[in-house]
Amino acid sequence: MKTLPQSCEQCLKEFSLALEDLKIYSNRAKKLKTPEASRELIINFEITHELALKLISKYFHKMGKGPFSGSRDTTVEAFHAELIDDGKTWLDMVIDRIQYNPVYELDTQTKFLDNIQHKYIEAFEKFEDTMEKKLVE
């Protein structure tokens, strides 16, 4: 049986739920400071980032734009379309994800974890606000 494609609104809801989970895992990682809590934070960040990219792609598809060849191109187009306001932070997300390698000890990933907690969650919150406004228009 075929399933219906998700709407932008459904993608936004899925992203918003993932963002709430990410905030919970961020607080947990701050409190526990364990390798397991850090891994969970990174996993939830990656899920949230993927859902943000999915929402951007779905929005562009609705507008008759795209498809784009990857997360970097999608991010650049989202910046040009004013869906995101800090293109550098969003491109840093893409780079951090590429550079992250769970084979290495997590203490080498301190910068990535710090970026998630102090830059990326805030960028996701701004994106969520922007998309809520765009989808009402």
TrEMBL record:
Source species, domain of life: Bacteria
Write out the GO MF terms: transferase activity
Q: Which InterPro entries match?
A: HepT
Q: Which UniProt keywords apply?
A: Transferase
A Pfam family it matches: NTase_sub_bind
Q: What is this protein called?
A: Nucleotidyltransferase substrate binding protein (TIGR01987 family)
